[in-house]
Amino acid sequence: MTDFASNILFTLVARQLARQGIAAPGDLAPAPTRGTVDLADKSTLLSAVYATHGALPILRIGQGVGESGPEPTLQALMMARDPKELVVRWQRLERYVHSRHRVLLRREEGHELLLEHVSIRDGETPSAGEDLLILGLLLALSEAVGAEGLTAALVGPRSETPVYRDGVVLDPGRHVAGTALWRIGWRGTASGREVAAEASPLPFPVVDNARRLVDRLMALVMDDCTRPWALDAVARQLGHSSRTLQRRLREAGTSFGALVRTAQIRRATELLLDGSLSVAEIGLICGFSDQAHFTREFKRRTNISPGRYRAEFSS
User: Fold this and answer.
1) CA atoms of 234 and 197, how far apart (whole Å)
2) Which residue segments constitute the domains of the chain, with CATH numbers given?
3) What secondary structure does DSSP assign to the chain, as a single string?
């Protein structure tokens, strides 16, 4: 598989390994002109690092996510309200790029998640290096979204091996029993972000006028199109019941689902005209399930493909 997400990961891997004094082989070093990177290259590099240096350097790679600059895909992930929503966003990224590896939520208990890194191809499993890379990234991103008291462990058949505690990546050693099953826990998020997101009013008063309500909600969704928007949660934030919010939207001639999709398309047009992101990246950031879905929905609503829209209207 080749895609923009693979290139982001590969560049991060090479940069953070270099900082740890581990050089990527010349034929695997990312070149500035390479738009995408084959997943096999990343897998080969990680396996070599794991065999030679162990797990710790790979787990530490994720610590560089905050140094990646204004990378839109990472920024979309870091807008999550807590580690649970971060995992949901990560899973959507995996589906969007048709990744052969997926992070599955096996169990959730309060502020604790049991996750498993698997392959969707029969008879194939991710390598230990690939497991550790994704775990390290999710931990670094969880810190970035404000998780406090973050801990993580590799879950083996008979015991657990801690790999993260108090902001420090821990060395699990070279002979861990398994690297694919993870337990991640956290005490809360900075300033109670996950509680505020569900229970506090939106940053504007309850709106009586249906048209104004649509405008406010449109702006809210456009600010984070990647978020898994849910009618019930938004209604609670507005101080309405779901039924009342639906009625208000009907008065304005729309529905919650239609409003979210309209906001996604409107945001996509802005990003297409900006010109700095690929069509594939825009589809992801705007909340579509994959690039084909983005192209289909965009054309259905505008009668023109995203690429053609950019060519016709960008300056």
Assistant:
1) 9
2) 2-191 (3.90.1520.10), 201-313 (1.10.10.60)
3) -EEHHHHHHHHHHHHHHHHTT-PPPTTTSPPTT-S-EEHHHHHHHHHHHHHHH-SHHHHGGGGGGGGS-S-HHHHHHTT-SSHHHHHHHHHHHHHHTT-SEEEEEEEE-SSEEEEEEEESSTT----HHHHHHHHHHHHHHHHHTTEES-EEEEE-SS-EEEEEETTEE----S--S-SSEEEEE-SEEGGGHHHHHHHSPPSSPPP-SHHHHHHHHHHHHHHTTTS---HHHHHHHHT--HHHHHHHHHHTT--HHHHHHHHHHHHHHHHHHH-SS-HHHHHHHTT-SSHHHHHHHHHHHHSS-HHHHHHHH--
CB contact at 8 A, 146 and 191: yes
Give how far Cα 220 sits from Cα of 40, 217, 229, 277, 292, Å.
Answer: 39, 5, 10, 22, 25
Report the sign of the C-alpha dihedral through residues 242, 248, 251, 256, in that order. negative
- 55-78: pLDDT as tens digits: 999 999 999 887 766 688 888 999
Contact 280, 4 (CB under 8 A): yes
**Which residue positions in the chain have pLDDT lower than 70?**
1-4, 24-40, 68-70, 191-208, 315
> At residue 189, what is the residue type?
T
Q: Record the pTM.
A: 0.84
